[in-house]
């Protein structure tokens, strides 16, 4: 094929039929201008940088400190985002795309973010401390209130232990002492605190067992929902007070409280002290409320101010980070004043790239211009296919199979027509096509609003991203539904049927009056009497929708033959596209010993079968006729395609028929005889097809081996002549090194000696794949017929078993049933026939393009052009954020 890129090469075949021509170029940028130049190239998004330091660790590169600073700024901005979302403050996102800041602006951004982070962390810390103090004071307030109630009840003799608690003699004695006298608790110690409500039962049991019933516990629930002092989560708590006697029990009680994470608070012994402490606590609570409110207002103001700029700041920081990350791909010359980069870029866009470099140099104030120098290379360039919002969906379908090899035919333009068409062949229904068309039209008309809404639902994004694909699928489904004359399993007699009723009305009335059951033959329309000889202008005659007996037989025969025609036509087109690839890459061996034998093989059997199908449709009707000197009595004696194909492969001689009184040859029915000498010609076709197989298998490897042999012999002769000259001149002369040639397209070998084993295996695989694939792929296209039949039958079943029942009832019941059954019919049509059947037809159309069509010419061994683009980087970051 020669070099991929040579200086001065001009772009050929612009557009979407092939990927853009690419070149490898070197950039020479001054150190002062490198940042601005890379920023301009990022805004342009047309160059892919190569890493010139693959063996250097990321931590040892020149701009690693700048990247770390950007990471730190990004971390602070994410912290700001989390705080803003926590307060449910909307972040302003105008979609503005600010320019990448200058390097000196980085310091200002860092200072701003550092100030904001420190201020927020300090405010958060103060708020956390205030909330903790507020929660503790609130709990203390409830403790003082509840304990005062406990002591008052004890003073009146009403303070009794809870049922089932402290039933031992010691416990009873302790209780009696507790409630006796004017100072009932003078001889006992006590602790008070709060504990979570769900831990209370276990807390009581452990106190009872550990203290052997020698403590007295009183609890009361707090009606208000409090916040946990550590986590801040809302919890339900209880106030408890425990009376005990002795230091040993006091130690046990405190350890048990600590184990259950109960919070203990100081509680005065006298009522007067408790009242004074309660008043002080209430005063402190009111003060804390005021301070806490001011703190929260200040925090809210800081976050509101930050929310207006945080998106713009994130964009700036990500641009800076991507620029320095890209600069780490550069090499530095020995003078430390120039940075050298290698980039892949489209040849057609070189002028725009040069202008971007010039703008970057001018903005940086550098006096030395940036230089772009094209290089020669044997490396395969990346594949770059220009797309827009319409073609992107179809290009994604192709790329999902594999990225095109550089400059090979791009299937996308042909897929734009063939994919929705084959889908529609399987999905053909005007009603369902209109539903799909309207849904896609809504997505297209509202695409700007829907894009701005940024709906995260994955299913919605799938349908919205493929809106133009769905639009064409809907349009083609309406067309094929019109050709099938099928709208929700019903037909429309738009042009007037070519069939009339040939059964006498008197006979029908007589049968109905007697209540007799006529045979199927008696109700059959005779073509000679009922058919006027003029076919239905466009599509299928609506009379076939009424034919209960042979409707499926007719439609199956038509759709099966139609599927074979479409399949072989698309496969043949794929082989023709392979010819365009071979000629573009100047691969004469592939043209002579791959394309030509493949076309001959395909024509001898499969295209010949298509001609027979078309001939049977065109020349055989209900009335007798004459074709190629043969007189046929009608459709019943049309040659059988299946039997004819079997006889063709078995090379059977067939009876041509007999000669009538007028000297015409009349064929016998079902003998697959089309023309005189048919057996002879079909035998020739089969033998020619068989002969093409060894040509495809051995011819190309043989000529490759022959070329390699001649090349080696020529190299030896040249080396021998130079050795003789060196001996005559009494000096040593070394043979010059041979510049290796890049691998020829499809030749099966690359640089270095030819490996015949690899070539033969490669060629055998492709030959077997093509020969067997012609048969299996033709059969695979019968899925067009199968899914079309299934879709039509499901639609008919849904109409018959659901909506038609609404027409059986009369009066108000019929009106109500019509509304209800129509709702059910519409819902099932959308969810089953449009969504589920549509997905099934989509997947089958996908397989037909990936396997049956693209395998004939498409290699898909390239790698995608990934330019350095701010737009792409920011979109990926935004998508990653939405997926979190």
From TrEMBL:
GO MF term list: proton-transporting ATPase activity, rotational mechanism
Membrane topology: Multi-pass membrane protein
Keyword vocabulary terms for this entry: Coiled coil, Hydrogen ion transport, Ion transport, Membrane, Transmembrane, Transmembrane helix, Transport
Protein's UniProt keywords contain Ion transport: yes
Lineage: superkingdom: Eukaryota
Membrane spanning residue stretches: 421-445, 466-484, 562-579, 600-620, 680-699, 812-836
Ranges in coiled-coil conformation: 63-140
InterPro entries cross-referenced by the UniProt entry: V-ATPase_116kDa_su, V-type_ATPase_116kDa_su_euka
Tagged with keyword Oxidoreductase: no
A GO cellular component entry from the record: vacuolar proton-transporting V-type ATPase, V0 domain
Subcellular location, record wording: Membrane
Pfam families the record matches: V_ATPase_I
Chief subcellular location: membrane
Function description: Essential component of the vacuolar proton pump (V-ATPase), a multimeric enzyme that catalyzes the translocation of protons across the membranes. Required for assembly and activity of the V-ATPase.
Annotated family: Belongs to the V-ATPase 116 kDa subunit family.
Protein name: V-type proton ATPase subunit a
Organism whose genome encodes this protein: Caenorhabditis briggsae
């Amino acid at each position: 094929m020669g070099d991929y890129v040579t200086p001065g090469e001009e772009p050929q075949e612009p557009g979407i039929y092939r990927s853009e021509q690419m070149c490898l170029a070197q950039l020479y940028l001054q150190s002062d201008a490198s940042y601005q130049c890379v920023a301009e190239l990022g805004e342009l998004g047309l160059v892919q940088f190569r890493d010139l330091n693959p063996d250097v660790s990321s931590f040892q590169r020149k701009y690693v400190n700048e990247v770390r600073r950007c990471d730190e700024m990004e971390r602070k901005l994410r912290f700001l985002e989390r705080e803003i979302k926590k307060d449910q403050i909307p972040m302003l996102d105008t979609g503005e795309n600010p320019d990448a800041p200058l390097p000196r602006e980085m310091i200002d951004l860092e200072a701003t973010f550092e100030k904001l982070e420190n201020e927020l962390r300090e405010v958060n810390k103060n708020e956390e401390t205030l909330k903790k103090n507020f929660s503790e004071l609130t709990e203390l307030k409830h403790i003082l209130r509840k304990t005062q109630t406990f002591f008052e009840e004890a003073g009146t003799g009403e303070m009794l232990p809870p049922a089932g608690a402290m039933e031992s003699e010691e416990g009873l004695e302790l209780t009696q002492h507790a409630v006796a006298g004017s100072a009932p608790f003078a001889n006992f110690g006590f602790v008070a605190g709060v504990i979570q409500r769900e831990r209370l039962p276990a807390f009581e049991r452990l106190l009872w067992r550990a203290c052997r019933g020698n403590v007295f516990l009183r609890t009361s629930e707090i009606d208000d929902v409090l916040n946990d002092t550590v986590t801040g989560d809302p919890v339900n708590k209880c106030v408890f007070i425990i009376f005990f006697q002795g230091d040993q029990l006091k130690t046990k009680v405190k350890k048990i409280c600590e184990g259950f994470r109960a919070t203990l608070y100081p509680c005065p012994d006298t009522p007067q002290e408790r009242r004074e402490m309660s008043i002080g606590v209430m005063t402190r609570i009111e003060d804390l409320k005021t301070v806490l409110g001011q703190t929260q207002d200040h925090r809210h103001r800081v976050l509101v101010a930050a929310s207006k700029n945080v998106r713009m700041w994130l964009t700036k920081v990500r641009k800076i980070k991507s620029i320095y990350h890209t600069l780490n791909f550069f090499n530095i010359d020995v003078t430390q004043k120039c940075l050298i980069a290698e980039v892949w870029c489209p040849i057609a866009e070189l002028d725009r790239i040069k202008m971007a470099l010039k703008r970057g140099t001018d903005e940086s104030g550098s006096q030395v211009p940036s230089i772009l120098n094209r290089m020669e290379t044997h490396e395969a360039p990346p594949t770059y296919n220009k797309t827009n919002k319409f073609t992107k969906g179809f290009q994604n379908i192709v790329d999902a199979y594999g990225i095109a090899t550089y400059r090979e035919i791009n299937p996308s333009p042909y897929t734009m027509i063939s994919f929705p068409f084959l889908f529609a062949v399987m999905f053909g229904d005007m009603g369902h096509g209109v539903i799909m068309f309207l849904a896609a039209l809504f997505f297209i008309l509202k695409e700007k609003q829907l894009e701005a809404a940024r709906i995260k639902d994955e299913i919605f994004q799938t349908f919205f991203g493929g809106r133009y694909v769905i639009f064409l699928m809907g349009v083609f489904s309406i067309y094929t539904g019109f050709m099938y004359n099928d709208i929700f399993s019903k037909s429309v007699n738009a042009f007037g049927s070519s069939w009339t009723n040939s059964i006498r009305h008197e006979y029908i009335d007589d049968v109905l009056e007697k209540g007799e059951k006529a045979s199927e033959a008696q109700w059959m329309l005779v073509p000679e009497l009922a058919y006027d000889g003029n076919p239905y202008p466009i599509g299928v005659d609506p009379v076939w929708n009424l034919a209960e007996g042979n409707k499926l037989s007719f439609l199956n025969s038509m759709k099966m033959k139609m599927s074979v025609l479409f399949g072989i036509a698309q496969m043949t087109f794929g082989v023709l596209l392979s010819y365009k690839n071979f000629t573009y890459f100047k691969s004469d061996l592939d043209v002579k010993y791959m394309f030509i034998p493949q076309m001959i093989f395909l024509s001898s059997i499969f295209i010949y079968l298509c001609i027979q199908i078309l001939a049977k449709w065109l020349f055989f009707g209900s009335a007798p006729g004459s074709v190629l000197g043969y007189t046929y009595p009608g459709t019943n004696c049309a040659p059988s395609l299946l039997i004819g194909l079997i006889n063709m492969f078995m090379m059977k001689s067939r009876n041509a028929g007999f000669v009538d009184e007028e000297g015409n040859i009349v064929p016998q029915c079902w003998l697959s005889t089309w023309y005189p000498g048919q057996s002879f010609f079909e035998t020739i076709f089969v033998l020619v097809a068989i002969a093409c197989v060894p040509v495809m298998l051995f011819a190309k490897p043989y000529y490759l081996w022959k070329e390699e042999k001649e090349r080696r012999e020529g190299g030896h002769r040249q080396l021998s002549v130079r050795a003789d000259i060196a001996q005559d001149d009494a000096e040593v002369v070394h043979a010059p090194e041979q510049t290796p040639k890049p691998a020829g397209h499809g030749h099966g070998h690359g640089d270095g000696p030819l490996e015949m084993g690899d070539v033969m295996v490669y060629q055998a695989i492709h030959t077997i794949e093509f020969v067997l694939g012609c048969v299996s792929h033709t059969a695979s296209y019968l899925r067009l017929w199968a899914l079309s039949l299934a879709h039509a039958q499901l639609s008919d079943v849904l109409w018959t078993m659901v909506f038609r029942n609404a027409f059986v009832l009369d009066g108000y019941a019929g009106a109500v049933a019509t509304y209800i059954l129509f709702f059910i019919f519409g819902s099932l049509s959308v969810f089953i026939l449009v969504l589920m059947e549509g997905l099934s037809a989509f997947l089958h159309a996908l397989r037909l393009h990936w396997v049956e069509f693209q395998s004939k010419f498409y290699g898909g061994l390239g790698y995608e052009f990934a330019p350095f683009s701010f737009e792409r980087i920011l979109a990926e970051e935004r998508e990653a954020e939405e997926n979190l």
